[in-house]
Amino acid sequence: MDAERVKVAELQGNQLAMSQQLTASRTQEMAQRRELDSASDEIDQLRKRHARELEEQEIDMRKKDREVRELKEDLRMCQHDLERERETVASLKATVSHQSTAHVALTTQISSSQAHQTALQAHLEAEMKAKSDLEAELESMRKRIVELEIETREAETIRRKLHNQVQELKGNIRVFCRVRPLLSSDIPTPDYDPEEEDRRREECKALMVFPDKMDHKEIMLSSSSESATGQERKDEWIFAFDRVFEPHASQAEVFEEISQLAQSCTDGYNVCVFAYGQTGSGKSFTMEGGTTEATVGMIPRAVEQVFREAEQLKSKGWEYKMEGQFLEIYNETINDLLGKADFDRKKHEIKHDAKTGRTTVTDVNVVPLSSPAQVSTLLNFAQSRRSVAATLMNERSSRSHSVFTLRIYGKNSLTGESCDGSLNLVDLAGSERLEKSGAAGDKDRLRETQNINKSLSALGDVIAALGEKGEGKTDKHIPYRNSKLTYLLQNSLSGNSKTLMVLNLSPLASHLNESLCSLRFATKVNNTTIGTAKKQTRVIGP
Ligand SMILES: Nc1ncnc2c1ncn2[C@@H]1O[C@H](COP(=O)(O)OP(=O)(O)OP(=O)(O)O)[C@@H](O)[C@H]1O
């Protein structure tokens, strides 16, 4: 039991200790509970603070998130910008590299340009120097030109005088002889026979010979006949003229010899060119010619030459005015070929102005001319009027004289000189004799032929009288009034006028006698000189 009591005491001591311990524990627990409470308060506070802080942090976080997003966006934008900038940089780099290449090239170019510029500068300076030298030279040339122009004008005046002297030395009356070729119309048709053609050609060759192969001044005609005693008789006639043109001579060759005379017109001289010969001998062909360049005749060529000459003389101060008239003399009556009516019925009178030396014909058309083309229109017009007249009066054109006159008035504004010349181109009526003309039984034809013969012999007489006057017989009467033709041409045949007669011949043996008559008439003219040295001519024959 003691043990028990001891035990109980022990237990009670344990219990007390334990109760003390419990109290202590309780105190401790209380303290701890207080501590716990304060800790829990503290925790609450901490929690609250933490929650607040958390909330603040969340707000902060959200703010930060937004900022991050914004920053990200900014970053993205920046990256985009950066990318773009990079691209720009890359392209700029490429440009820069390109530019630097270009720069290098440009630098090279600039330096070469500078070198070129330097060279150009030097060249320019040299050119400027050359220019000023040239200007000085030009100035001296200008002065020289003015001097030369004066000299040229003086030379032109001298040339005119010399040209005139040359023309005078050649003779103020010249005669050319032109034989036309044998034509197909000369061979009889129908029943054309080539042997007959050959025979005629041989006959022509035997009839006319041109002995002077150098100067072409002679023509020899020969014929053989049987005398009464049965002996063969050969006759030869040699004629010499200023120029003889063989059948093959072209219009250009003939004109070459005449062109000098055309020039005299622009120098203020009167020139007459006559075509003389029997009908069909080639007078119209020589004067008017055909329509082609090769066949065009003396009238258009002379007119062309006068216009050309006038144009050239413009540079020497000459200004020309030209006018033309075209008349026909038929049966001693003047007809105006440029008249308006089909057939000229007006009465025309010839008037000479003693003061001016000008000849005018009343009531005729004088056409101002400014170009050769106008002249050819005028010739065609005259030709058509002649054709009308020809149908009205059988073959009239060959039975009348046609006179184309080109008047040329010139004034030189620089030298004060003036001139007044005329070019008369005359297609004379056929020169056949009465028996050949078939006029014997025809009264009208007889009158025509007598008039033609009268005017042609009047022309011969005037020329012969002019020749005598030129040889010293100063009081010699010149029978200009003996025919309308010579009266019309009075002023163009007298003084120091220049006359050319183109004697046209047919090559046919059947025309021998007509040809001889024509040649004798032309020889009479050729032996005449107006005021200057007489020409040497010879005629041999029966
Ligand atoms: N040199 C020549 N070359 C070629 N044909 C020519 C030549 N001369 C004249 N004829 C020709 O001869 C023919 C007669 O010539 P043209 O009419 O000129 O003679 P004409 O003497 O004027 O005659 P008419 O007195 O009848 O007017 C014409 O057919 C013409 O073409």
UniProtKB/TrEMBL annotation:
<protein>
    <recommendedName>
        <fullName>Kinesin-like protein</fullName>
    </recommendedName>
</protein>
<comment type="similarity">
    <text>Belongs to the TRAFAC class myosin-kinesin ATPase superfamily. Kinesin family. KIN-14 subfamily.</text>
</comment>
<feature type="coiled-coil region">
    <location>
        <begin position="124"/>
        <end position="165"/>
    </location>
</feature>
<dbReference type="InterPro" id="IPR001752">
    <property type="entry name" value="Kinesin_motor_dom"/>
</dbReference>
<keyword id="KW-0493">Microtubule</keyword>
<dbReference type="GO" id="GO:0005874">
    <property type="term" value="C:microtubule"/>
</dbReference>
<dbReference type="Pfam" id="PF00225">
    <property type="entry name" value="Kinesin"/>
</dbReference>
<feature type="domain" description="Kinesin motor">
    <location>
        <begin position="172"/>
        <end position="528"/>
    </location>
</feature>
<dbReference type="GO" id="GO:0008017">
    <property type="term" value="F:microtubule binding"/>
</dbReference>
<dbReference type="InterPro" id="IPR027640">
    <property type="entry name" value="Kinesin-like_fam"/>
</dbReference>
<dbReference type="InterPro" id="IPR027417">
    <property type="entry name" value="P-loop_NTPase"/>
</dbReference>
<dbReference type="GO" id="GO:0003777">
    <property type="term" value="F:microtubule motor activity"/>
</dbReference>
<keyword id="KW-0175">Coiled coil</keyword>
<dbReference type="GO" id="GO:0005524">
    <property type="term" value="F:ATP binding"/>
</dbReference>
<keyword id="KW-0505">Motor protein</keyword>
<dbReference type="InterPro" id="IPR019821">
    <property type="entry name" value="Kinesin_motor_CS"/>
</dbReference>
<keyword id="KW-0067">ATP-binding</keyword>
<feature type="coiled-coil region">
    <location>
        <begin position="29"/>
        <end position="88"/>
    </location>
</feature>
<feature type="binding site">
    <location>
        <begin position="277"/>
        <end position="284"/>
    </location>
    <ligand>
        <name>ATP</name>
    </ligand>
</feature>
<keyword id="KW-0547">Nucleotide-binding</keyword>
<dbReference type="InterPro" id="IPR036961">
    <property type="entry name" value="Kinesin_motor_dom_sf"/>
</dbReference>
<dbReference type="GO" id="GO:0007018">
    <property type="term" value="P:microtubule-based movement"/>
</dbReference>
